[in-house]
User: What shape does this take?
Amino acid sequence: MNMKIPKYIQAENEIKENIKRGVFVDKLPGERILAKELGISYMTVRDAIKNLVDEGILYKIPQKGTYINKIGLVKEKTRNIGFFLDDRISDGISNPYYSLIFKALEKESVSNGYNLIFYSQYDNLYPSNKKMKVDGVIVSFFQRMENILKDLKIPVPVVLMDNRSADDSIPSVTIDNRNGIMDATNYLCSLGHKRIGYIAGLLDSDGGKDRLEGYINALEGQGIDLDKGLIYKGDYSFMSGEKGAGYLLSQSKPITAIVCANDSMAVGAIKAIKEAGLSIPDDISVIGFDDIAVASQIYPPLTTMVVPFQEIACNSVMMLTSLIDGVELHDKHVILPARLIVRNSCAVNNPASSEGMAIIRT
Assistant: This one.
């Protein structure tokens, strides 16, 4: 029995044939022009192109067009690695966290014979001619970027930082955020604190959600009832830490400690606590996350969770350069622990054992 081949499959086959014969060398004609040339509907062409993109035969560059994968691109290595940081990140590359990330990535890239180029605009990653500007890209990834990631991963290898994609085939290097905040909260509990506030970061990513879950899980593990009124939704900025501490200090039942989802908010919280006439750590203990430079420079020096910036960079660059060289990765998803470093911003509330905590003392 003869089966009629669907039109979109016929369109796919014709586009593939035109690629083989060299009719389409680099960029496809616009979809409406292509539909007219093939004598089929615009929607049928769209379906065919979508399928060919999913197969990796084509890739799309937003506002530029549809390109043929691996045919029009020159293969000589540029010895450049891109670092893409979404321009919606507060302060961009000047952000205290990302400036340390970039410095570590740059050091690791150079030691592997590559230059590191910073990008904050998605379109700038793509070639204006037939040469790619970079051999691969390390992306500070957030879930809102899933759509552009589909296009980005086709021309060059990609490794993600901060969060994993829904597409598990894309390698990632992340922090164990849940257990990190659990350790921070458990440390405060070991000092006898029970009324512990939490200033959360942005909750539009797995990292932000995992840190919040870590706080909640630690309280549950300690047998402390969760008070949702002690959770303030911040945005990782100094100002939101300041506002968050003000909110927590206004609660009718006093708190004795605050866990912050990053150090910038912890520094803001310290400012608000001091302006309220309270002492740190005698009245309020504060703990942060990241160990940015200012954490050890403020007074009192901040107890925090250390993020292994150099390990993040080493793993990210190693994975990316392996992909550039065509080497298959056996472990595509690396999760690195954060470690507690005790300084002077936390104190005993009630006598309690701190036995069992993994602590770095300075």
Summary: The chain has three domains: 7-68, 80-175+311-336, 177-306+339-361.
